[in-house]
């Protein structure tokens, strides 16, 4: 008799809508604290089938795990980062969201950064945009912004391969915000100082560059030279690269280079390039650096030591390591 009832229950559940099965099993297991064997007896199926249903319920998001104190922990960690490194603000990606491969982490940092910008950018702000994968991800996520003046912070180079070039990024942000873009249709550098000076004084170039001394916000990724995770590392002439490496270069912010102790290093691009200078970056009211992951850690630390950053957006593991740093 018991076997016949079990068989009837099994036929009933196996023919039912899967979403009801997931909900039933999840409720029994997580809320009523029943064992898999008890649920199996009630449903007339094997405990292995119950285990599989529980796993599928989690995978299909019929069950979500919420950690009430996690957000408070992330906010506390962000505040501690601010205090330790004298920052105006910090955002730490949650511990749960910090897991995954490099591309997934980049995408999640992009989402967090987009939300931060939507909350903090105000109408008519002058916003400088660098380049990088995390900024491409950020701009792809942005949906709404107040009208802004969006300024390109350096020329372009054909070997910087991102889904969106610096010119694409500023035009897209300007479009989202119904603001105005100030592009620089120039290479990142030229080979002659006289040519560089002449080009820099061109009226169309000067229109964008005149913003460099009074920007409200800069949004930039952080290039990592110790791990080779820097777009500039890959495109610089060999002589430039070797010269910077000889001076313990650790990170780049826009076209400013920093050693592991946070000291700014001079580079040929300072005289031959068309990017914002270190001095001009320092005049910006809020320099937002976005980077995370193990390969970026030393560069993030060097950038914080330099004092260039005002705001850091990073992942949980990086933030914890930063707090452990002497």
TrEMBL record:
Transmembrane segments: none
UniProtKB keywords: DNA-binding, Transcription, Transcription regulation
InterPro entries: NagB/RpiA_transferase-like, SorC_transcr_regulators, Sugar-bd_dom_put, WH-like_DNA-bd_sf
One Pfam family cited in the UniProt record for this chain: Sugar-bind
Sugar-binding domain boundaries: 75-323
Record's keyword annotation contains Endoplasmic reticulum: no
Family: Belongs to the SorC transcriptional regulatory family.
Matches recorded under PANTHER family: TRANSCRIPTIONAL REGULATOR LSRR, TRANSCRIPTIONAL REGULATOR-RELATED
Name by which UniProt lists this protein: Sugar-binding domain-containing protein
Organism of origin: Rouxiella silvae
